[in-house]
Amino acid sequence: MTPARLPLWMALAPVALLVTLLALDVIWFGEDSSYGANQMALLLAALFAGALGMSRGTTWSELRDAIAQSIGTATEALLILLLIGALSGTWLIAGIIPAFIHYGLMVLQPGIFLFAACIVCAVLSLATGSSWGTVGTVGIALVGIGQALGLSEGWVAGAIISGAYFGDKMSPLSDTTNLAPAVAGTDLITHIRYMAYTTGPSMLVALAVFLAVGLGGSAMAEGTAELAPGFAEAVTGAFHIHAGLFVAPVAVIVLIARRMPAAPALFIGVLLGALTAWLFQPHIVREVAGEDLGYAAAAYVAAMKAMAVEVTLSTGHPLADSLLDSGGMAGMMNTVWLIVCAMTFGAVLQATGMLQRLTSALVTGVQSTLGLVGRTVGACLAFNVLASDQYIAIVVPGKMLGEAYQKQGLAPENLSRTLEDAGTVTSVLIPWNTCGVAQSGILGVATWAYAPYCIFNWVSPLMTLVVAGLGWKIRRMPSGPNQQEVSSSGH
């Protein structure tokens, strides 16, 4: 089966079914929709798409192989999620996360918190090239600080994710920053330089919004501000807080910055967290172990519990107790479940030719630079929604639209920039996309709750359209010894 032979209505039908089911889940399940209902919606839509495909000749073995390959590409992401669950557990009993919160409350005020959180995450992600690593370490602590300050969790998570994805886009260590120019056919340094023209202004807009909202008090959450007093005392009363607790997070950041893969770096962080707990928090170790054991046995039991299952510590302070909680690896299993179902849906659409048919319809009749960039943005968004993976949202549109950019005489860095402006940053806004599922699970904030406040992630694709419409920093293919940037009149 070829995409041209597939009726457009047939390609759209599973998408329409999925959107309908997800809308019903939001209506009837609310914030609990991602705990089973959305997974079933994705599988039902995949089943429907598979049945339509098989009616036109797609075999079960083709569907099965596509699903296996799709889930296989997510293996590392799933492992990272499990390790982040284990890391949050050992860092909790070690007092690392409480220490982040304690010192953060000493230096951060509600008015500047969103602005500062965005910058901290941007710098860390730029240094490490990992948005997931940034959110899974400092991001978790910043959520706790923000809640202790009485700020809305949606605004806090939005600032964290905005900063993390800025660094993810601009860091030469980032996988997507290397993937986009490789797909488009340009080099890494040129790609980063051309991204700066859209990413820099987008970040300035985001920071301005976070500062204005913070100083204006619009980000304060109702009913939490009165819980903040006494929080610091509750934390310091439960843990031995000192600077030595930061050895583990610093080690993880250094390892990732030195280009160690995220999974082994996080696993080292898990072990360092357990060692820190054994050395500095013996009373917490005995409390978590919950049995009359020698200290060596209690340390082992506490570490295994923290890595694997839910651990809850009691301080007597309502807000502190709600934050000093970790689900371990078990707490990430629902996120893993959702990712597997999302990848299954995307794989079935790809195996049946439906994704290709939708994309071919999307790019038909493009005549101008703005039109081509706009279709690229639309294609990246569509693949993030339908295929549920940011890598597919970069690779497939990049491969399919590369020839169209060449025909219009546009240099490949225009394509690579647009792929990142639209593909990388919007993935985290989709509740069933691997990035949206992951960040929601890590931060403990529903995607629907934080998505409206990820200012950078919304502005970035709009900025790439503005630049294309103005014709500013649009580079032409070389017609001579040098490439040329053209104005809007040069479309």
- Total domains: 2
Distance between the terminal alpha carbons, to the nearest Å?
Answer: 36 Å
Low-confidence regions: 486-491
Order of helices and strands: HHHHHHHHHHHHHHHEHEHHHHHHHHEE
Global morphology: globular
Strand order of the largest sheet: 1-2
Proportion in helices: over 70%
Q: Give the number of DSSP strands.
A: 4
Oligomer designation: single chain
Q: Mean pLDDT score, rounded?
A: 86
Estimated radius of gyration: 23 Å
How would you describe what is shown here?
The chain folds into two domains: 3-74 and 333-490, no CATH class; 76-331, no CATH class. It has 491 residues and is mainly alpha-helical. It is globular and about 70 Å long. It has 24 helices and four strands. Mean pLDDT is 86; it is low at 486-491. It is 72% helix and 2% strand.
Task: Give a concise summary.
The protein has 491 residues and is mainly alpha-helical. The chain is built from 24 helices and four strands.
Give the tags.
two-stranded antiparallel ribbon; 491 residues; mainly alpha; 4 strands; disordered C terminus; 2 domains
Topology, element by element:
Blueprint: H1 8-29, H2 37-55, H3 60-73, H4 75-93, H5 96-107, H6 110-128, H7 131-148, H8 153-170, H9 175-184, H10 188-216, H11 231-238, H12 247-257, H13 262-280, H14 282-289, H15 295-308, E1 311-312, H16 318-323, E2 325-326, H17 333-351, H18 354-362, H19 369-386, H20 390-407, H21 412-426, H22 434-443, H23 447-450, H24 455-470, E3 474-476, E4 484-486
Helix pairs in contact: 1-2, 1-18, 2-17, 3-17, 4-13, 4-15, 4-22, 5-7, 6-7, 6-8, 6-10, 7-8, 7-22, 8-10, 9-20, 9-21, 10-21, 10-24, 12-13, 14-15, 17-22, 19-20, 19-21, 19-24, 20-21, 21-24
